Amino acid sequence: MLPTLRETVDFYGLMANKALGQNFLLDSNITDKIIRQSLAQQNISDFRQVNIIEIGPGPGGLTRSILKAEPRSLTVVEMDSRCIQIMKDLQVETDTPMHIINGDALLFDPTENIPSPRQIISNLPYNVSVPLLLKWLSQISEFSALTLMFQKEVAERITASTHSKDYGRISIIAQLTCSIKKLFDLNPECFTPAPKIWSSVLLFQPLENAITAKDIAKIEKITALAFGQRRKMLRQSLKSFNNITDKLEQIGISPTARAEEIPPQKFLELSRLL
Ligand code: SAM
Question: How far is CA 27 from CA 47, 100, 138, 190, in A?
Answer without folding.
Answer: 21, 23, 33, 7
